[in-house]
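Review box. Two proteins, two foldings.
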Amino acid sequence: MKNRRGQVTIFIIIAVVLVAAIVGILIFRNQLTPSLPSAEISPIQTTLLSCLESYTKTGVSVLESQGGYIYLPEFEAGSNYMPFSSQLDFMGNGIPYWYYVSGNNIQKEQVPSKTEMQEQLARYIEEKIRNCRFDSYYEQGFAIKQGEPSAKVTINQENIDISLTMNLGITKGEETSNLKTHNIKLNTNLGRLYDTSKKLYQYEQDSLFLENYGVDILRLYAPVDGIEITCSPKVWAANNIFNDLQNGIESNTQALKTKGGQYTLTKDENKYFITDFSSTENIRFLNSKDWTYSFEVDSEDPILIANPVGNQPGLGILGFCYVPYHFVYNIKYPVLVQVSSGDETFQFPLAVVILGNNPRKPLDATASQIQVPELCKYKNTLVNVKTIDNKMNPINSDISFECFGTKCNIGSTANGILNEQFPQCVNGYILARTEGYREAKYLYSTTKSGEVTIVLNKLYNLNVDLKLDGIKYSNKAIIIFDSDNGAKTISYPEQKSVELSEGQYEITAYIYKDSQLKLESTTTEQCVDVPRQGLGGLFGLTQKKCFDLDIPEQVLSSALAGGGKVSYYALENELVSSRTIELNAKSLPEPKTLEQLQENYILFESKNLDINVN
């Protein structure tokens, strides 16, 4: 009985404490946190959640359209060797390449992780949410104060969870309320589309199926290697080959498909264009002739010529000739991959690289970040860099270091000074770049600490006015401004301006006119040694066999008709006050024959340009 009375007493005490707590909360609730009626607060919170949903949808759309990025990685320009920058210009918007080869020939990846996408979307929400408008509530007498936002995003397969922590203080009259957490769930296929894109990208890196299709296109649209039985040379124009390749790459790339999705293979459809990759999403592959590309063929001339030979045993005796040909190409072009489900599309570009008629080598390992070159990992030599203009004024510039084809970003000068660690290398170049100035480089061995001063020359934009025999010329011309810092070439009249800085230039102008110059077909005799017939052939004896080499008729659509050269030192004082550089060239005789055309090229070397800068 005593034990029972003790248990009852404990329960009574607990009950009293609970009742007291509830009563205290009810009494002091309004004093501690006065609140507005929920019916008045609810629309304000609904407005905030609507803003949160709207900004999240916008952020998701940007992520999907920019390969998983809202805030793009640092832009890296391409080069003549590798034309790709780090981004594909698609309808005026830059999309980071997931795979590309940098201007200094380094394979790089920019595949964002799902964590990075979540962080970028959270950052975007935090930046935008305070733009939410509450004007209609201000008119009703509400005072609304927003605190610092902090967002957390979780990307799932079919939706996104967004948790926003932000104090939202609401006051009307003497009543105040504070809302702190705001959560929504947005239905979107972003997570699933990203996962499919990542798998497809890895499939490309493992199999190089885009490069293999590219090699097939090359062999279909361009002369690569082969043999034809003919005594006439085979002639191809490189520009025509490249134009055919562009058309072939564009149409054949768009014909590629994957298994699954809304695509169903018909009985008569060409299975060649169906890849082995399977997906429930719809996948498209895009290429455009307007995008950056690079086509190269191993030839010194714009015309590819394969000459006939007749030294195969027996063929010369029978009177046959054959033309063997083998041309080596380097091809680089972008492909934009679009992975779709419903009305959502996730897209990312990658570079297709074919070197020496063969696909590039696969990457050794998968990376989700840009690979840092080995040289750039070890920066242990302190160098003080100063960047100034030619009037000794400090200039803020981006500084990098280049050695043996590897380029490392170092930092930026502040008030013209940067004191930073450099990787060790003998005879490397310290590069300084700033907008509006010619890029400058300084040869320097970073095996020991030191100080470097780099002078940058300001660039001035000048209009180019070309004349022929004193008369304004408006047809086709090529003008080259060659200096120690490189050459600038403009195609006139499409381009009528050039940026020059102080320095020595060798200016050359080639003026072309329309021509119907016909190169008549010719026949020349070509002789080769072939095995003798009969017993003499067994002992390696040969005899001379001759045959006619027929060169077909050709028509030149344009011919050199004028031009010349001039050396010119551009002074900055002159460039500052000038707007136009006028070039006056001398004409050449209109060629009627091949011999006259050759004479024009000889005469061209002695022609001078008259130059006037005003």
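Next protein.
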Amino acid sequence: MNGAQQLRDYQKRLRPIESKLRRYTGVRHVDVGYRYVDGQRTDKLAVRLFVAGPKLARSQAKAKNLAPKSVAGLPIDVVALTRARPAPSALATPEPAGDLLGGLGIGQTAQSAVTLGVVVHSLAFPGPQILTSHEVGYENETVLQFGLAGSRSRPVGHVVNWQPSNMCALVQVDGIPSVYDAVRDLPNVRKVAEPVDISVLFANRVSLQKYGYGTQRTEAILDGGEASDGTVALSALVDGHPPVAGPGDCGSIWMTSDGMAVALHYGSRDSDGAALAQTMHGIRDLLGLSFP
């Protein structure tokens, strides 16, 4: 059985027991991916339970309702996670003109900025929109873009669709006559990765890239398959390398080198700095998106 086949086999066997696994203490996400031993990635697959806060000792398993080491013949790996926080920065001074820059921060303030992800079209709204993290702001709030140093800003638009359960939002672009002439350094989406593509990318350890406000350009591989809630995890190509994402990167797009959009970044694991992201095919279908 090859890697993609084993991944799909584990995912199939996981479905009837996933609701049970989610009832264990602290579990926030469940997926199938590489098992970690003493913080090091192995080549073995496991059902991973991502838990809020630190992992607890096995001696507390019964008292704290912790997950067992295996369920229904599937090995269990417990992984601590945390949400990425926006990078602190200086307050910005509004600037009326300028380009929309990929990889720079957008939001209400420089302190809470996330990453400008990609320009899209939604069936529900006229003109172009920006797809980014839901942390960009609430519906109808004004959105600014900030420079790398957070010293200047310019108006971009306002939030028109806020989806916190899917970690994404759409920002309607306002006051820019031709957004495509104003956009620089944004991803060029050739296609969106479907579920079968994600399995193949995982099995072949294909390198993905993102360009974020926090850590700028980084590379990673899929660390597991797509979970039932649309989450995928990504980790460094080689164990021990710096984290692949950090504060301020929420909203950036993980893509292949030939323009396949895989997932929208929304957080990081505190155990090893691996990225957590929502699949783009799920976001596309939810929001009715197309890519210019």
